Amino acid sequence: MIMARLFHRIFFLLLLLTCHLALAQDGKWDQALDRYERICNRCIELRERAGRGENIPAESIADLLGQLGSLREMLQGAGSEMTPAQRARYEGIRRRYAEASGAPILPSLPTLSKPSPELSGYRAKVPVLPPRLAGGGVAAGAVVRPHVPKRRNWGGNAILYGGLPDGYGGVFASLHSGRFGAYLKGSATIAPQAYSYTCFSDGTTPSGLIWTSGREALSRYAFSAGGSFAPLPHLRLYAGGGYGSRTVIWEDAAGEWAAVSDLSRKGAVVDGGIILSWWRLSLLAGVSTLDFQNFCAEIGAGLSF
């Protein structure tokens, strides 16, 4: 009799403990479903606010999705632990959220580690950003990305060149970004010859005739600017215009110098050519014309940067 009573008492205690655990388990899933429903309602609210053009804080979105992901995994893994009523409630919350997905689209939200049915209404997804990159908020429809400063692809050339047959030297300087650029260019004879008077190529002067010694000099300068274009990575074309002067000077029998007016030119300069660059070396080859009467070939070398 004593053993029978002890057995019944132990059985009764085990029954109470099992009921208590079952009730506690039911309460656990009820609390999880309450939180799940609150978060889904909050997501629907944010969708509606975004549809009205309000700014949605990125931090709050990331926090909601973190909670939603944890709850989703826990509820989906519950299986037979939930009661039929709890499972029906879970499916009801999911269906209501799915129906609300036709509302205006929220900002692109961070993705979870696994695709979530609760996020099926979102059009675009980006990784969760740390607070220092997320900023204060994002506008509706905007994609949150870390700010990466743009790197400008600037470069240029500094070239010394010479022109033949006039025998002058010059400096070519250019700056470019990508395929397009601009340049400045200037040249002059190294030792321009000064003159005392003028004459014509037939030997006449305002005061008579000139008797030459046979010596001749040339004084030339030019300045130009223009644009450049690179059809290939190491090949750049340039073309432009400016102003220049070219003076032919003769020496007379007395040792004085006279500028030959009808052989000298002043006016527009037009030039163009190519630049080949390899590593830090640049080579220039081009042509320059003064007043479309005098043509000179130009060759140079310099540095690229």
Distance between the termini: 105 Å
**Rg (C-alpha, Å):** 43 Å
The main sheet orders its strands as 3-4-5-9-10-11-12-13
- Overall structural class, as computed from helix and strand content, comes to alpha+beta
Regions with little confidence, pLDDT below 50 for 5+ residues: 6-24, 103-136, 138-144
Features:
single chain; 305 residues; alpha+beta; 13 strands; 41% strand
Secondary structure: elements and pairs:
Layout: H1 2-51, H2 58-76, H3 84-100, E1 109-110, E2 125-126, H4 131-134, E3 154-164, E4 168-177, E5 180-189, E6 197-199, E7 204-205, E8 208-209, E9 212-232, E10 235-252, E11 257-278, E12 281-290, E13 294-304
Parallel strand pairs: 1-2, 6-11
Antiparallel strand pairs: 3-4, 3-13, 4-5, 5-9, 7-8, 9-10, 10-11, 11-12, 12-13
Helix pairs in contact: 1-2, 1-3
